[in-house]
Amino acid sequence: MIKRLIKKRVSSVGLPPGTLIHVGDKKVERVDIHVIDYDENKVDEMHFSDPDDLSDIIRNNHVSWININGLHNMDVIEKIGNKFNIHPLVLEDILNTEHRPKFEDYENYLFIILKMLSYDETNQEVITEQVSIFLTSGSVITFQEREGDVFEGIRARIFQAKGRLRKMGVDFLTYALIDAIIEQFYLILEKVELRLESIEEELIKNPTSETLQEIHRLRRDVLYLRNTAWPLREITNEFIRDDLPFVQESTKMYLRDVYDHTIQILEILDTIRDMISGMLETYLSGVGNRTNEVMKVLTIIATIFIPLTFLAGIYGMNFHYMPELDWKLGYPVVWFIMIVISLVMICFFKRRKWL
Amino acid sequence: MIKRLIKKRVSSVGLPPGTLIHVGDKKVERVDIHVIDYDENKVDEMHFSDPDDLSDIIRNNHVSWININGLHNMDVIEKIGNKFNIHPLVLEDILNTEHRPKFEDYENYLFIILKMLSYDETNQEVITEQVSIFLTSGSVITFQEREGDVFEGIRARIFQAKGRLRKMGVDFLTYALIDAIIEQFYLILEKVELRLESIEEELIKNPTSETLQEIHRLRRDVLYLRNTAWPLREITNEFIRDDLPFVQESTKMYLRDVYDHTIQILEILDTIRDMISGMLETYLSGVGNRTNEVMKVLTIIATIFIPLTFLAGIYGMNFHYMPELDWKLGYPVVWFIMIVISLVMICFFKRRKWL
Amino acid sequence: MIKRLIKKRVSSVGLPPGTLIHVGDKKVERVDIHVIDYDENKVDEMHFSDPDDLSDIIRNNHVSWININGLHNMDVIEKIGNKFNIHPLVLEDILNTEHRPKFEDYENYLFIILKMLSYDETNQEVITEQVSIFLTSGSVITFQEREGDVFEGIRARIFQAKGRLRKMGVDFLTYALIDAIIEQFYLILEKVELRLESIEEELIKNPTSETLQEIHRLRRDVLYLRNTAWPLREITNEFIRDDLPFVQESTKMYLRDVYDHTIQILEILDTIRDMISGMLETYLSGVGNRTNEVMKVLTIIATIFIPLTFLAGIYGMNFHYMPELDWKLGYPVVWFIMIVISLVMICFFKRRKWL
Amino acid sequence: MIKRLIKKRVSSVGLPPGTLIHVGDKKVERVDIHVIDYDENKVDEMHFSDPDDLSDIIRNNHVSWININGLHNMDVIEKIGNKFNIHPLVLEDILNTEHRPKFEDYENYLFIILKMLSYDETNQEVITEQVSIFLTSGSVITFQEREGDVFEGIRARIFQAKGRLRKMGVDFLTYALIDAIIEQFYLILEKVELRLESIEEELIKNPTSETLQEIHRLRRDVLYLRNTAWPLREITNEFIRDDLPFVQESTKMYLRDVYDHTIQILEILDTIRDMISGMLETYLSGVGNRTNEVMKVLTIIATIFIPLTFLAGIYGMNFHYMPELDWKLGYPVVWFIMIVISLVMICFFKRRKWL
Amino acid sequence: MIKRLIKKRVSSVGLPPGTLIHVGDKKVERVDIHVIDYDENKVDEMHFSDPDDLSDIIRNNHVSWININGLHNMDVIEKIGNKFNIHPLVLEDILNTEHRPKFEDYENYLFIILKMLSYDETNQEVITEQVSIFLTSGSVITFQEREGDVFEGIRARIFQAKGRLRKMGVDFLTYALIDAIIEQFYLILEKVELRLESIEEELIKNPTSETLQEIHRLRRDVLYLRNTAWPLREITNEFIRDDLPFVQESTKMYLRDVYDHTIQILEILDTIRDMISGMLETYLSGVGNRTNEVMKVLTIIATIFIPLTFLAGIYGMNFHYMPELDWKLGYPVVWFIMIVISLVMICFFKRRKWL
Q1: CATH superfamily of the domain spanning B294-351
Q2: Measured distance CA(A133)–CA(A115) in Å, rounded
Q3: What tens digit of pLDDT does each residue of E110-127 get?
Q4: Does the CB of A339 have a partner CB in chain D at under 8 Å?
C-alpha cells in the first residue's frame, strides 16, 4: 500500500502545482461520461465521451449526476474543469488517486475525496478505488478510475423513484453516495470477521508459524482499514456543519445517521484490533507453553533413566572384589531396586504436578 | 458480539434510508403496547395491540408511559411513528437493535438509545437488549425487543405513589428509566467481580492454560461492558445541557447523580482492566517460572549423576593393566568417592541457592 | 476495594432516588454532633445528639463548624437535612460512603465529598473514610463515619487563635479542612516509599516470587491512591473558579496552594508507578537471567563429561581384538587424554565467556 | 543527531542573546548571494558577495528572491540584517543551524525555519540542511549552509515562465519553496521503504542479530524523520491562518495542498513505525521459535537413546548369574527390543506432534 | 529524590498555612544579600546581611537585582517579605525548597520558582537547587539556598555593559536569569548523552547485568530531568501572555526564544527516552540470544555423543554369543561407524544452520 503511494508521489516531485498528471494506471479503455438527470417527475439517462456535449443538459430545478469513469484522458478532465470552473488544484487532487480522503468547501462548490472499498474474492484482498465527488448547484459530478461501483442501488432508486431520492436535491444525492460507500465497509468487515474466526480456530487446534503470519497480515489490513475509515469521521462531521451551501436541514439528519455509522465502524475496528492483540499474546504464550511442555516431559524421561544407567554402570565395573557380583540374587535385586527407584521418581514428579 | 452486529448491518446494505426493517430476531409472539397513564392523583393501566386505539389517552397534564414490547411488526411501529410524528430515520434506528447508544435532540422530541443489561444465570453470560426511549410533551414511549425488563421497580413506584415520581413530569420518568438501566450495571459488575476473584484463586492454587483462556474471556467481556458504558457518559452529559426542551431544572440534579454513577462505573471497569492485565502478567511469569523451576531441578539431578556415571564407566574399561581393579578396597573406595562427589555438588548447589 | 464498592451499590438498586440508606457499616455507637462556634473574639464548643438543639446557635457573623460523627442514624441526618435545607440527593450522597470525591455548587450552598486517608500500622493498610463537607452561609457541616479524624490540628488552631483561621470566614475553614486531608496523603506516600525501598532491597538481595506479589500489591495500592487523588485536582480547581458564593478572593490564594499540592501528589504517584514498572522489569529479567545462568553452568558440566564417558564406554567394549587394552600404558594414557579433553573444553568455554 | 545538537547548543551557553555565532561548520568557501528578480514580464539574475550591492535591486512590483549560500561570514549576515531590518534574535536563529523548524509572524515580515532533506547515496544516510526563509514585502530571502538545494525546479519555472509562479507574489514563491522541501520527504520515504522491504526479506530468509540492529537503526531514522516532519504540520497550518500579511487568498489554497501532504507524510511515517514494531515482534518470536525448535529436536534424539543406553548398560553388568547372557538369542533379542522401543517412542512423539 | 521530597512535606504537616519553616538543610553559614543596582550609565554593587539596610537603595528608573543566598534565617526572609509586601504563602513557597516549578501573577508582582541544575563531577550526579524569582517594579529578588550559581555570566554582562541588558528593565533581567537556568540543561544533557554512548558501547562489547542497572539508572535520571523541564514550558508560555505587568513587548521576543529552547529540551529528552527503551530491548533480547546460543551448541555436542556412547554400550554387553566381538576387524569397524555417524550428524546440523 505505502509503497504504491510513495512511488506515485515521487513521480510528481518537481512539477509545478496544478499540473494535471494521472498518477494511477489506465483502468478503462475510454473515458465514459454517464449522466442521470432527474427531478421528481422525469429521469433522463445519457452517455457522452466528449464533455462539450454536456452543455445543454444543465438546466434549472434538475439534479444532474454526472459520473466519469476513467481518469487517464487529461483532455476530458480539463474540459470538465473548465465547464464547471473547477480549480486546477482540485483537478490535480482528482487525478492523484492516492490522495487521502478529505472534504473541502470552496464557497461555490463542495469537493469530497473518498475511498470506495470492494472485496476481490479470487485474490482474497480488499480493492480500493478513489471516488471524488464534486457538488455544485444542480450537479453532482463523481470521478472514478474503473468501471463498476457501489452505486447501482442508488441508480435503481432513481429510476424506480423509490425512497425520497427523486424528491430531494443534490445534497441528498451526495449523502446517498457517501452512505453507499460507507455501507460497503460492513461487507469488508464481514470478511475480516471471517478471517478472525478462522485464525481463532487455528489457534486452538493447531497453531503454526503460518498462523502468526496470518495474524500479522490481518493486523496490517485492519490498520489499513482504520486509516481509510478515520478521515470519514471528520468528513461527515464537517458535512453536518451549519454554514455549508447546498446542504439542507432535512438532509443533515441523514448525514448524522452516516456519522453514527462511521463511529460504529471505527469502534468495531478498535475492538478487532484489541482481539488481534489478544490472539497474538495467546499464540506467543501458547507456543512457549507447548515447547516448555515437550521439554519438561523429555527431561523427566532422561532424569528417570540417568540414575538407573548409573547403577548399571556400577555393576559393569571390573573390580575383582565386588561381593554383589557373586550373589545369586544380585541381578534380580538390581532390577528390583531400579524399578523401585523409577516408581519413586514418577510418584515424586506426579505429586509435584510435573507430569 | 461483533459478528452479530456486522451481520445485521450487512443485511440492510443497499436499502434506501428510512426503510423499516427489523434487524433483530422475533423475540415475542405479538407486539404488546402497555400504557401507564398517571398524574399526581390517578393512575391508569391499559394494554393495546393496535396503536390506533391509543388516540384517546393522550390528554393534558398527564404523563403517559407507552411501553412497546416486540419490534417485528412493521405495521405497528409505523402507525406509532405516524401518530407521534417520529422521523423515519428514528424509526429505523429503533428497529436496528444493534445501534450504538446515543442521545438526539429533535426540537420537539428527544430520542435516546440505551443498552439494557441482564445476566443469564444458566448460560453465565450477559444479555443485552436495546431500549429506545422517545420523549415528547406528555408522553414517554419505550421500545423493547423482549418481554421482561428492569423497570418493574419504576412501575411499582408509580402504582404505589412512592417517591416523587408521580409528582413530576416526563423528564423525571425518563431519568428514572435511565437510572434503572445504569443501576443494572452494578449487578453485572458484581458477577464480573466474582469471576475475577475465582480466577485470582485459580492463579494462586493451580493455574492451567484454562485459566489463561478464562482471563482472556473476562478481558473481552470487560471490554464489551466498557464499550457499552462509554456512550452513557456522553448521553447523560448531554441530557444535563441547558437548553433541552421538557427537562426541568429540578430533574437535572437527579441526572447529575446518574452522571456520577456512569463515571464510577467507567472507573471501576478501568480498575478491573488494570487488574486483569496484572493477572495476565502474573500468569505468564508464573508459568515461565514453574517450568524453569522444574527444568532446573531435573538438570541438577542429571548433573549430579553424570560425573558418577563417568567414574563407573572408567572402571568398566577392560584394560589389562588397571591397578585399582586389583585392590581389595577398590570397589568401596569408588563408592566412597562417588558419595563425596555428589555431596560436594549438592552443597555447592545449595550454597548458590540453585536447589 | 472494588468488591466493597460494588456490593454497596448493588444494595441500593431499585430504590427510589433520594431514599436515605446508609451503605456503610455502623462504626460508632451513637451519632455525635460536635459544634465549634467562633469569631475573632470568642469560641464556643458544644456537643449535641439531637439536631433540633442546634437551632439557637446559628447567628450572624459567626462561623459554626458542625461536625457529625456517625451516619447510621437516618433520623439525625434527615433532621439536619431539613434544618439546613439540604437536597435529598445530597443527603443520599453523604450516606453513600463509597461515593467518588466530587464538588458541587448548589447556588446557596457548596457540597464537597472527599476521602480522608489514614494508615493502620497494625494491619499495614490504608484506611479510607469519606468526609462530606457542606458549606453554607455561616456554617460548615462535616459528616464522618467514624470517630477520630485529621482535623485535630485545625481545632487546636481555632481554640488557640493561631494563624488567621479565627479572623476568616467559612471558606477559609473549608480550605483548612481540605488542606488537612490532602496533607495526609504525604504521610501515606511516605509509607509507600518505605515499601518501595524494601522491595528494591529484596530485588537486589534475594528476589523470590513473594517479591513479585509484593510488587503487584504495591502497584494496586498506588493505583488506588491515584484514583483517590485524581478527583482532588478537579475539586480544588473548581473551588478556585471565579463565581462561587462564600469564597473570598483572599482564600483563593490558599486554595491555589492546595491545588499545587494535589498536582505534586499526582506527579509523585506517577513517578512511583514508573519506578514500579521498572522494578517489575528488573524482577522478570532477573529471574530469567538467573535460571539461564544455572542452566548454562549445568549444561556445561554435562557437556564436559559426555565425551569422557563416551571414551570410557569405548574401552569398556568387549571386542577380542582391541590392541589398546593390552598396552601397559593404555590406562594412564586414556586418563591423560581425558584430562586434556576436559581442559581444552574448559578453555574453549572460558574464551567464549560461557563460564 | 542529538549529540551534535547538544554540542552546538553548549557552545553558545553564557553568551548574551542576539550574539551572532555560527554554530554549524563552514561548508562553502565564500558566501554567495544569488538574486533572482522577476515580474510577469522580466527576469534578472545576479550574483553578489557584498550585501551592500543589493540596495538598488529592491524595486516595486517585483519579486526578489535573494538566496544566501554559506553562513560562516558574520559580516555578511549582519549587513543583510541591517538592510532588511531583521531582529538580532532572528539572525541568531538563522545562524543556529540546529534550530527546530518554526514559523513566526513579526508584523512586517514572516520568518520560517525548515529542514531540507537529501539522501547521500554513498554513505546511505539522510543529510539535513537548515533553510531559513525570510519573507517581507517584495523580497524572499533564503539562507542555506551549503551549495546545492532542492530549488532547481523552482528556478527553472521562473526562468521558463512555466506555471503561475511568475504571475504571483512573494507568498507564492514562499509556498513553492516549502512545497519543494516537503516533496523531498517522499524521496526519502522511498529509500526508507526500500530498507523496510530488504529487512522484511531478510526476516523471512535468514534473520541474524544484524537484522535486529538494522531494525533498530531504521526505527531511529524513522523517529528522526517524524521529529523533522512534525513541526511542518504546525508551520503550514499557521501559514493558512487568516490574518497574515503578504499572504493572498489564492495562495492559501496551494498552502492547504501542502498541508495535506504533510499530513500524509506523517500518516505514512506512523504506518511505517507500526510495521517496524511488527517486524521487531516477528524477529523476536522467530528467534525464540527457532531455538526452541532446535532444542526440541535435540532433546528428542537424546530421549530416544537414553533408555537404549540404559539397556546396554544392564547387559554390561558383570553379575555372575545373569541367565540372559547365556541365551543363544540374547544378543539379537536385545537389539530387537531396542528397535521396538525406539520405534514406539518415535510414533509417540509423532502422534503428539513433537516431531 | 522522591524520598527527600516526601520527607520534607511530611515535616510541615499540621502547621497553619503561611508558617515560615525552611524545609531544606542549612547550606551556607550566614545569609548574604547581594545587590546589583544599575541603569544604562551606572552600576553599584553592595553586600548586606540585614534587610533593613536595603531601604535606601530602591530608587526610580534603576534596576535592583537583590540576590539572597541562604534561606535558613527566618528573620531575614520575613523582613524582606515585609519590605516588599510579599504574601506569606509566597514566602512559604520560597522556603519550601522542594516546591515544583511554577509561575504566578499577583497583580503587583510576579513570582517564579525554578530549578537550577548543575553537575557534580566528583559524585557524577545532577545537583538541583531551587531558585525563586520575585519580580516587582524596579526590583528583581532572587532566593537561593547555596552559594554559587549559573548567573556569573549575567553579572559580567551587567558590569561590562555587554549586550542590551543594561539598557532594559527588570523584565529583561528576569528573562536573562531564566535563560541562564535553561541553558544549563544543555550541559546536563551533554553528560546524559555521554552516559548514553558509554552504555551503547558496553551493550555491543560486553553487556552485563551491571549494564542493565546502568540503563535503569539513566532512565530514572532522564525521567527526573523531564519532570523538572516540563513545567518550564508552561512557565515561559505564561510569561509571554499579553496582559502581564512589567513585561514589555520587546522582551517577549526573547522569551519566545527561551520557549523554543524548552521545547527543544523536551524533544531531546523524549528522543533519549526512546533510545533508552530501544537499548533495554536490545539488552534483553541480546541476553536471551546469547544464552540460547550457548545452550544450542552444548546440546548439539551432547546429541552427537549420545548415539556413540550407546554404540559403545552395546559392545560392552556381556552376552556370550555376540559374533561381532570375535571379528578381527570388529573394533576398527565400530570406530569407523562412529566417525561416520558423527560426521553425518554434523553435516545435518550445518545444513539446518544449527551450527
Answers
A1: Magnesium transport protein CorA, transmembrane region (1.20.58.340)
A2: 11
A3: 999 999 998 888 877 888
A4: no
